[in-house]
Amino acid sequence: MTIQRILVTGGAGFIGSSLCEKLVEQGHQVIALDSLFRGSEQNLASIISAPNFRMIVGDVRDVIDLDDCVESIGGLDLVYHLAAVNGTKWFHEAAHSVIDVNINGTLRTLELAMAHDARYIFASSPEAFGESKTQPLSDGDPMVFTDPAAHQRHSYGASKYLGEIACQHAAREGLDVRIVRPFNAYGPRLCGDEYGQVIAMFFQKVLSQQPIQVHGDGSQTRSFTWIDDVVNGFIAAGEIEVSTGSTFNIGSIEEISILDLASKIISLTDHGEGVSHTQGYKGDSLRRLPDTSSSKQMLRWQATVTLNQGLRKMWDDLNS
């Protein structure tokens, strides 16, 4: 295996920190760039002193910070661009910042990769499909965004859609680009506060002995993917020789309703506070299931951890 000089933006975040750990373990020279808006240096505790790892606290939109990253590792071979403002509550409360960070961060990192002829892996999202009615979600399916006067949820999804457009343009200009869409990654470091993601939020309610809050009737479905499986998908996308502009859905095909997810967690944790139903966010997808055929064929990737196994792993870690 060739040792590479790798930049991971959002490297102190949930997925980014686990990706950094794996890349450092493989022996690569890795630098993480993170503003620490949502990321945490604690997430990198296991590798922070490793000789082949460095971290810079900075802004992915800042070309000086990006150049400092490249200078600190003596060049650039590969970029994993994960930095983004995520969390559904932010989409509605801070749409301007979501759009600014996500779009301009993508443009600046694409420019950096082009300047150094580095391979570029873009972390997109199933949210890039907007409110598509077609399931499972596949490349070439319609990407549908509704009236922005109704809600601002698509500040995130549309920013990822535009990020994919920018990546495909860069691919046509000769950059080696791959697009990865992780589907609802979860694991012990996942943010569980009011700006976090659903599984971690449910576990946080259990730990604080409060009812689990389910949006609406809970019939909306998702496909949750264990963090190690997601990281392996990113690694495979960065290593394999494929056509530039190739796109991969990295997700479990095990579909579950949010209400059934709450029931699983209640059963697992013996949580006695039950469920309360609250009003959900406008624009929330009713169903989200990935078509992973290209990931299986080209990356030789598929999810290996079942939801039951992953929930048990996460619960055990939270109680360790």
SSE layout:
Blueprint: E1 5-9, H1 14-25, E2 29-34, E3 53-57, H2 63-73, E4 78-81, H3 88-93, H4 95-116, E5 119-123, H5 154-172, E6 177-182, E7 185-186, H6 198-207, E8 212-215, E9 221-223, E10 225-226, H7 227-239, E11 246-250, E12 255-257, H8 258-269, E13 275-278, H9 293-299, H10 307-318
Parallel strand pairs: 1-2, 1-4, 2-3, 4-5, 5-6, 6-11, 7-10, 8-13
Antiparallel strand pairs: 9-12
Q: What order do the SSEs take from the amino end to the carboxyl end, as H and E?
A: EHEEHEHHEHEEHEEEHEEHEHH
Shape designation: globular
Cα gyration radius (Å): 19 Å
Describe the largest sheet: 7 strands, parallel
Describe it.
- With 320 residues, this protein is α/β, with parallel strands linked by helices.
- Helices cover 39% and strands 17% of the residues.
- The chain has ten helices and 13 strands.
- It has helices at 14-25, 63-73, 88-93, 95-116, 154-172, 198-207, 227-239, 258-269, 293-299, 307-318; strands at 5-9, 29-34, 53-57, 78-81, 119-123, 177-182, 185-186, 212-215, 221-223, 225-226, 246-250, 255-257, 275-278.
- The strands form four sheets. A seven-stranded parallel beta sheet has the order 3-2-1-4-5-6-11, with helices on both faces. A two-stranded parallel ribbon has the order 7-10.
- α6 packs parallel to α8 (258-269).
What are the key terms here?
320 residues, alpha/beta, 10 helices
Structure, briefly:
This protein has about 325 residues and is an alpha/beta fold. The protein has helices at about 15-25, 65-75, 90-95, 95-115, 155-170, 200-205, 225-240, 260-270, 295-300, 305-320; strands at about 5-10, 30-35, 55, 80, 120-125, 175-180, 185, 210-215, 220-225, 225, 245-250, 255, 275-280.
